[in-house]
Design a protein that fits this description.
Elements lengths: L3 E7 L2 H9 L4 E9 L8 H6 L5 E8 L6 H9 L9 E2 L2 E2 L5 E5 L5 H15 L6 E4 L3 E3 L7 H4 L9 H7 L10
Parallel strand pairs: 6-7
Antiparallel strand pairs: 1-3, 1-6, 2-3, 2-8, 4-5
Helix pairs in contact: 3-4
């Protein structure tokens, strides 16, 4: 099976991971910290020591089922793409939004999707789009956090998490 990966930062990674993991064609998700200045940071370091990392979800997906443009459109539904360093009640540089790629062929797809999003909302975006520099997996208790803690905090509306399970990526139109 041919697989692809992309890294998505959209505020607190618990809700982003739960939502993204529900999309048909997503094979695996891991939460962690991307593009910071410290090797192998802990959650406490990222939260309190200004390491420069973004809470990020690594997404492994099947491009035969889910295209990158559709995945990105679905991701944009759960973020405020104009907010700087804040999503929901989470505030800080680690909660910025971003799309980080490992395949240079993904860069123009990402750029086009962000251009379309900016035209749609009519405001400048605050979404980073750049190559992945580093990714460090978060501690195990953060992985699948909302599965382990169903009542846990999440800035992503539960209705959207339920809705995205019903989406057919081959027919999705935003």
């Amino acid at each position: 099976m041919d697989t692809k990966e992309i890294y998505l930062a959209g505020g607190c990674y618990w809700g982003v991971e739960k939502y993204i993991s529900q999309i048909k064609g997503v094979l695996q998700t891991d939460v962690g910290f991307a593009n910071g200045d410290v090797d192998a940071p802990t959650y406490q370091q990222v939260r309190y020591e200004n390491t420069g990392h973004a809470e990020t979800v690594r997404v492994l997906y099947d491009p035969q089922v889910l295209s990158l443009p559709v995945l990105l459109k679905l991701f944009y539904k759960i973020i405020d793409p104009t907010s700087v360093d804040q999503q929901g009640e989470d505030v800080g540089h680690q909660y910025r939004t971003g799309v980080y790629h490992t395949d240079p062929a993904d860069q123009p797809i990402i750029a086009q999707s962000l251009l379309e999003l900016e035209e749609k909302i009519g405001q400048p975006l605050a979404v980073e789009a750049c190559p992945l520099q580093s990714f460090w997996k978060a501690e195990e208790y953060h992985q699948k956090y909302l599965d382990k803690n169903p009542g846990g905090y999440c800035h992503v509306p539960l209705e959207l998490i339920r809705w995205v399970k019903t989406v057919d990526p081959s027919r999705y139109q935003d």
